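Notebook entry, structure prediction.
Reason for the run: the old model in the group folder had no record of what sequence produced it. Starting over properly, with the input documented here first.
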Amino acid sequence: MQQDEAVAGAAGPRLWLRDPLAILAEEAGGGLVVEGTRIVERVPGGGAPASPVHEIFDASRHVILPGLVNTHHHVFQTLTRAHPAAIDKPLFPWLKALYPYWARLTPEAFRLATRLAYTELLLSGCTTAADHHYLFPRGLEEAVDIQVAEARALGIRACVTRGSMSLSETEGGLPPDSVTQDHDAILADCERVLNLFHDRRPGAMVQVALSPCSPFVVTKRLMRESAALAEAHDCRLHTHLAETRDETDYCLAAFGQRPLDYLEEVGWLSPRTWLAHGIHFDDAEVARLGRAGVGVCHCPTSNMTLASGFCRTCELEAAGSPVGLGVDGSASNDASNLIEEVRHALMLNRLTYGAEAVTHRDALRWATEGSARCLGRDDIGRIAEGLEADLALFTLDDLRFSGSHDPLAALVLCGASRADRVMVAGAWRVVDGQPLGIDLRALREAHGRIARDLFGMA
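New structure, fully documented this time:
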């Protein structure tokens, strides 16, 4: 990195990321200027910043993207990847096979799972991570506190969702009693973590959303009261919906209605809501979602792994719904890599809609602007003046990129998997492909050991 002479009387340090190989922004061929936590200037190709800078980073080897935004994950599942009990199963049998293992989750195991997943995401160019944590076995009541502490330590921007499961097998739900919680305990903890951690201000590093898990594991009462609590605290709502045909069948049998009718009855059909998966909606339901402004997180790898189906991304966007991207749980992906998810989204949607209908720019938009809209944020997801300086820088040095001609297209089509540099809120968090402050070998050993000890098959 080159240093320029100090600029006397400057309001603060200004960094110019100069002359990138390519950049996902208009009128920014000459790069961009960061001051504090924000982008303050886009520099046209061949130009220079309008005001003096203190520091220059030569970005001529780099493709610059807005920081990727992950809108659906279950980080605890990094401990049960490729688990023999669940391989080659669709969603409901997959869940029932893994619930008994997940009931063993301890605070230390969860801390390591969170740290590993956040680190993986950062390395893939992700700067904002939404995790849907709904599992609270005895002893793990402060799971949200653990996630907030890990996000702050790593410097990743986080939307931590306080999930829940209140409807056990004995009450007609899917999970065993060992992983569900009492209704009143759930709502009390939701209010606690909202008061402690939810930051509504622009540039917030931590926000909280409420996320009862799905129609087959929570009561309608919990859904309604979660919606009321979200309104009172001005936070987002998140849940799984219409992921599989089995879910539709369950809703019809248990409630006499389809999943979207269920969502409307409990007061969730609003712009405050974003849904995970959103696969099995008919034309009329897609139109209703669009009119209501409900966001949908597309999870292509998980949907292919569990053979759940495909999200109607193009129709949802056309109807008015924000469409984002998520890696989903690391036991149905089985990774926490958002730039790889971009490629999978492109391929699956081309297979669905045709080669000309979905481009690499569409897939990148879902992972940036679309995901930011799902989280209700207009301060991230794009490279523009006044927005947060969340950036992912990739090189095209690997053999897989040799011979490529369009750098942005190559990033997706040739299969980028790891960022060279990642900036969050104006601070470098990944440098030369390494996360700052993390011993990757030690993390891998500790995480792998606890996964074997707690979740291995006897």
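Summary: The mean pLDDT is 95.
The old model has been moved to the deprecated folder.
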